[in-house]
Structure formats: C-alpha cells, structure tokens
Design brief:
Elements: H1 2-32, H2 51-57, H3 61-71, H4 76-92, E1 110-115, H5 125-139, E2 143-148, E3 164-167, E4 170-173, H6 184-202, E5 206-210, H7 213-226, E6 230-234, H8 238-244, H9 248-254, H10 258-273, E7 276-279, H11 282-290, E8 298-300, H12 316-322, E9 330-335, H13 344-353, E10 358-363, H14 369-379, E11 385-389, H15 396-401, E12 405-408, H16 414-418, H17 423-429, E13 434-437, H18 440-445, E14 451-453, H19 458-467, H20 473-479, H21 483-498
Parallel strand pairs: 1-2, 1-5, 2-4, 5-6, 6-7, 7-8, 9-10, 9-12, 10-11, 12-13, 13-14
Antiparallel strand pairs: 3-4
Pfam families: Glyco_trans_4_4, Glycos_transf_1
Domain Glycosyl transferase family: 316-466
Protein name: Glycosyltransferase
C-alpha cells in the first residue's frame, strides 16, 4: 500500500511540475517495453514554446522568472514552468553544511553507498561500476551497503518486489516514503531523514555518494547529522551533459548561462566540502584542481574490469551461428546507451563506404535509437545493421565477442572529452581491437594503445576500421585495471578518513 500511494503522488507531482517532460519519458518507457500508447496522449514536438521556455532551455533561469513575473496572466504550461524554475533555483542554492565528526569508531569500516540508480532496474556503465566496485570492496573485507535515491525504482516505472534486495552479495536499500512531495525542501528533508535512519540502523562509519550534486546535498547533510566523514565520487558532469544536448551553435553561449555556472559551482562546492573526492581519470583530477579542490584529497579510481574476463573462452563460430551472423562477416559495433553524444550516426555513415562484408551491430537502447534507425534506412545500410536493444547483463560478454571491432565514436563535446566509459576497457579485456574518437578521456581510458579517429568524421572512421589489426596491447592494458585493484585503493581511502 505504501508504494502504491507513493507512486500515485509521484505521478501527480511529475505531471504538476512538467507534464510534457513526464509524458516524453513515459513514451520512451513504453517504446523500450514495446507498449503501444495512443500518440494523442503525447505533446507534439512542433508546438511553439514561449520566450520563458526558450530562456530555460538556454539555462537563463532568473531571466525566465523575470519574464513570467512581468507577464502577469500565465498559461498552464508557463505556470508549471515557473514552479519548475523555482525548484531548480532552490536546489542550485543549497550550499554544503559543516560536518563535525565524532570520535572515530574502533569497530572497523562500514560504508553506505548512496546511488542514483542500480542493477537490475537500470543497466548502464554507472550501475555496472557501482556493483563491481562494491563486490570487490566486500571481497577486501569491508562491509558495504547501497541505498538508492528517493523513490527509485518506482520513479522510473519499475516495481521492486521488496524495499531491500541482495545482488552479488551486496544489500541494496530502496528509500520509499509514504508520499512524493511537490516541495523540493520536503523531498530533500525526507531523503536525509530516511537515509540517516538507515545509516544508524546499519552502524555505518562512512557515507559515500556519486555525482550529481543532488546526491551530494543529501550525503553531506546525513554526514553532518551523524558526525560521519563522507566521500564524493565525481563520475559524470551534469552541466556538460546538459550542454551536449543543445544545438552546437548554442553551446558556447550556454556555457556562460546561469544554469551551467550554478550547477558547476555546486559540483565544486560539494567536492570542496567532502573529506575525499574520487574521480575516474587524471583528466578529471586536473580539472578539479584547476577549480580549487585540494590535490591531496583527490584520488583516481579508474573504471576497471573483472579478472574473470581474461579467463573466459568463447566459441566465436557457435556464437555467430546462434545469432545468424555469417562466418566471414566483419562485425563492427558497440555496446552502449544510444544517446546523441555517443556519435553512433558517424558509425552508420562510415558503414555506407565499407565493403559489403562489414556489418554493424549496436547493443543497447536509448532515446536516439528511433532517429538512428530512420537514418540507417535513409542511408541504405539497414540491411547490414542490427539494433538488438538492451541485453541481459549476465550474458553481455557474448555480445562483445560477436564483434571483430569495437567502436566508441563519441562526439567532441565537453562531457566526452572528460568522462571515461567502461565499455572500451571491457572490449580490450576480451581481446577486441578498439577504435575511439580521438578525445583525451578516451585515450586515457584505453591507455593510448588503440586506434583513434577524428570525431564526427565518418571517412576517417571508415579508414581506421579497414586498417585496424588485432593486437595484444589492449589486453595488457586492461589487465592493469581490475576492480580488485580499484577496491584496494578505495578501502585505503575509507580507512584513511575514518581513522
């Protein structure tokens, strides 16, 4: 009953705040689930938006507020926008609170990992890293529990059997209040209350969370309430991801926008406030140092792979026969979320110029899939390209092994220049030659031993695909990046800030 009431109030709140955005997400959820929902229920993309909406899209929140205040009588859509802007500015204005730590516990380290989402409800590089890192931490003798954001996974339309579950030896806790409040202050308050209660019940000695800053707001206040140290793990860049979704001609000006600057400042503020900061790359560490974070508190724990990947053997011929792929086909593809900044349209255009024995395989799903499927048809490569959707994480390695060449053709955006994905490293561990866009983050995560193509240049990608040769350097590089090695470093950090 509690979850039913929560779900009803959450839907009402989402509709009240942003019915267009909610219906768009509902439509994407329906597409992923192969559900047919009448099109008239969804807002038309072509509907013109007000100047206030345009200001918000470009990150000028206060200017949008001023416009709405001066206008007087507002449409329903503008009233909802006003509420949403008010809530966003509230969140962007929540500064870190000071944490007065208690006397360190002598019981040993026990960690609580506060996460945005988790397996099995969300399959992504984020959830893969969380699960793998926690399993390795546990294997290194530290008790670690996970908790997910308020209302998850109900808030993404997934119904859990219980509010707690065990996965790979890790206990996950979902946080469900009775209602989903429209007030961000009340939502934060309830999340902090319930997470602090869980931390006390579990007897944890350190709070650990990840980007984005809304998670840090909670972790910081729970740590302050309980007198515990906390860690901020910088994985992605909220503001850079937002920027990447804008048209290219608007990105430079949007980088100076109020939203971008405030969001970036929040990330910096909470990194400064944390006892330790974990980053995924040297690039990310350098950026944080330039933004004023003390170098000594920043630790690089890169994306990694399981040791078992190096020991796995596959019958490639049997796998190809199982999936209807010709023995002599050269399969080029990726395992990825299908979103715009991944640059998969570059792969499709490269496929046009490749000989007929080259086939494309895209494993994964996302909002950009319908556009790419239409593009494949218009380019005439749909007969040589397979979109197979999301696959079982337990058997995902088989899909990697179907590939002769693994590509990460990301676009040259701020987020892609900084954020390091797991997927290329997994391909390296499995002995698959990799081609990525020539971007700093992608060179770092692959050790500089793979092939690198000019971003968004389909001809250069095509030439790199034809020229690539099998090699062993990728496997050797991946062997230096295992989750057990990463966990040892994280355990040292835990012990360092709790002693």
């Amino acid at each position: 009953m509690k979850r039913i009431i929560f779900l009803i109030t959450a839907v009402i709140s989402y509709l009240w705040l942003d019915w267009r955005g909610f219906m768009k997400k509902l439509g994407e959820r329906a597409r992923l689930s192969n559900l047919k929902i009448p099109k008239f229920l969804f807002p038309a993309e072509s509907i013109s938006i007000s100047p206030a909406h345009q200001l918000v899209e470009l990150g000028e929140l206060s200017k949008a507020q001023e416009y709405l205040a001066a206008k007087g009588k507002l449409t329903i859509s503008e009233r909802k926008l006003k509420n949403r802007v008010t809530q966003t500015l509230f969140e962007l204005g929540l500064k870190p609170v000071e944490v007065t730590e208690k006397i360190p516990s002598k019981k040993g380290v026990k960690a609580l990992y506060f996460l945005t989402n988790s397996l099995p409800f969300t399959t992504s590089g984020y959830t893969k890293r969380s699960q793998s890192l926690m399993e390795a931490v546990a294997e290194n003798g530290v008790v670690i529990h996970a908790a997910t954001r308020l209302g998850y996974p109900l808030t993404i339309g997934k119904w859990p059997k219980s509010s707690t579950y065990l996965l790979g030896g890790i206990r996950y806790h979902n946080i469900f209040p009775w209602v989903f409040s429209r007030s961000p202050a009340k939502r934060y308050g309830k999340t902090i209350e319930l997470l602090a209660r869980l931390a006390v019940d579990l007897g944890v000695t350190v709070i650990h969370t990840t980007t984005n800053f809304p998670n840090a707001i909670v972790a910081n206040r729970v740590a302050a309430k309980l007198g515990l140290p906390w860690i901020y793990e910088v994985r992605g860049e909220l503001e850079s991801t937002w920027l990447s979704k804008l048209p290219k001609d608007k990105q430079r000006s949007a980088e100076k926008s109020e939203y971008y600057q405030l969001a970036r400042a929040q990330e910096t503020n909470y990194a400064n406030a944390a006892n330790a900061v974990v980053v995924l790359s040297e690039i990310s560490k350098s950026q944080l140092i330039r933004r004023g974070i003390t170098p000594e508190k920043i630790f690089v724990i890169p994306n990694s792979v399981e040791q078992k990947l190096f020991d796995k053997e596959y019958d490639k011929s049997a796998l190809r026969e199982k999936h209807g792929i010709a023995e002599d086909a050269v399969v080029v593809g990726t395992v990825s979320s299908i979103v715009g900044y991944e640059g998969l349209d570059t792969l499709l255009r490269a496929l046009v110029s490749l000989p007929d024995q080259y086939r494309g395989l895209i494993v994964g799903d996302g909002v950009d899939r319908p556009r790419l499927e239409n593009l494949a048809k218009s380019l005439g490569v749909n007969s040589r390209l397979d979109f197979v959707g999301n696959q079982n994480p337990q058997t995902i390695d088989e899909w990697y092994k179907l590939l002769d060449i693994f590509v990460v053709p990301r676009k040259d955006t701020a987020v892609c220049r900084t954020v390091t994905p797991i997927k290329a490293l997994t391909a390296q561990a499995l002995g698959i030659p990799v081609i990525t866009s020539d971007l700093p983050a992608l060179r770092e995560v692959t050790g500089g031993v793979e092939s690198y193509a000019i971003p968004e240049d389909s001809r250069d990608l095509m030439e790199k695909i034809i020229a690539i040769k099998p090699h062993s350097q990728g496997v050797e590089w991946a062997a230096s990046r295992t989750w057990n090695q990463a966990a040892k470093k994280l355990v040292q950090i835990y012990r360092g800030i709790t002693s």
